[in-house]
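Instructor's aside before we start: the two examples that follow are unrelated to each other. I chose them only because their records fit on one page, so don't look for a connection. First example below.
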Amino acid sequence: MPIKYKIDILAELKEAGYSTYKLRQMKLFGERNIQKIREGEVLNADNLAKICELLKCQPGDILEYVEEQQENTAE
């Protein structure tokens, strides 16, 4: 996927006082969304907005577009 995280989301959240335990306890994110973040999967807009709210940042601060290289399949 060409959209990737620029930062380690969970590390930044932890630094801001939101451990994965606290995120689950406060019902901010469920285990599936936390796992998606760990795996580098981009979350939906509502969850990205929640991350931006918690980190006091803009989506562009945490996401970037990385052009995918196309493989040559001509033989």
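Example two begins here.
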Amino acid sequence: MAKESASVRIEHLKKVYPGIDGKPVEAVKEVDLHIEPGQFITLLGPSGCGKTTILRMVAGFEIPTAGDIYIGDTRVNSLTPDKRDTAMVFQSYALFPHLNLFDNVAYGLKIKKLPKAEIKQKVDSIMAMVGLEGFGNRAPNQLSGGQQQRVALARALVMEPSVLLFDEPLSNLDAKLRVYMRNEIHKIQRKVGITSIYVTHDQSEAMSLSDRVIIMNSGHVEQIGTPLEVYTTPASEFVADFIGIANILPCKVTENTGRNVTIDVLGVPCTKKAEGSRLQPGGEVKIVARPESLSLGRTGDIPCKVVSSIFMGESQDYVVNACGKDLKVKVYNPLIHETYHEGEDIFLSLQKDSLHMIPKKD
């Protein structure tokens, strides 16, 4: 693409809707974001968390109640969607059924009254990029869902926007096609280097596509970080529980040296960096233990009983009871590990370096 991507800056953004009972509903609460040019960021969270409202405000389909949106150095609050240098890829594809694929992709260029030769060159180039070279004369109803989504992506990319917006674009596809299409989107975005904002409630999409993930909850930002950061060092219990599967264990502090804090985890001492923590002995914290950070064996740290054992192909998924708590354990490549069965008495061990501490909020 010839044009450089732009940064996106959101400052003190709020959106309030009138409620059914007359009480205002805050859909977005004082959100601040800075997206660097060429970054792929994902707004991730449950339904009603405000992620789609933010995307629609960036696109111009919703007017902010307060705050500012900048694309590059331009404040765009007062600009209509067609005057913003953005393009949207919709969940429903939004293709024109009476136009062939070439004309669907060319539609925006024709509105801009570009020369026919330039339109053909741009459309042919972008159709080849998305793997639909030679499909120009086909009708949308002659394509699979994945192919239709590629056309929708091509129609957005051909406009050479500074910012590309995705509104849950893969949610209408089956599971295998979703995986394939997210890989395609990732490959194309990296190739063109366009700033992208993606909205989804699907964790695997967010983790596989994003440079940074923005976790939303009830209208506010819970955490911003790389996929690795939000998974391994969640900033709150909400993030730990929402991203992947987590065992969240209430624990007691037994010692704080100022540099390190020692925590009793199911009767096993675990030392973590204190990082300026004021936790005192007897204080409460939460420990996040991912299923893959626990291991099972005939010997180990903590006696436990197998509650369930399920073969999932790439893993054996267990629930074990230890110290009165049910814990999820995932053992990858089960063919090279002993399999334990429901009712067996075995031992649980902790991979201490993989545990993450969430201090209890005041």
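The longest strand covers residues 24-35.
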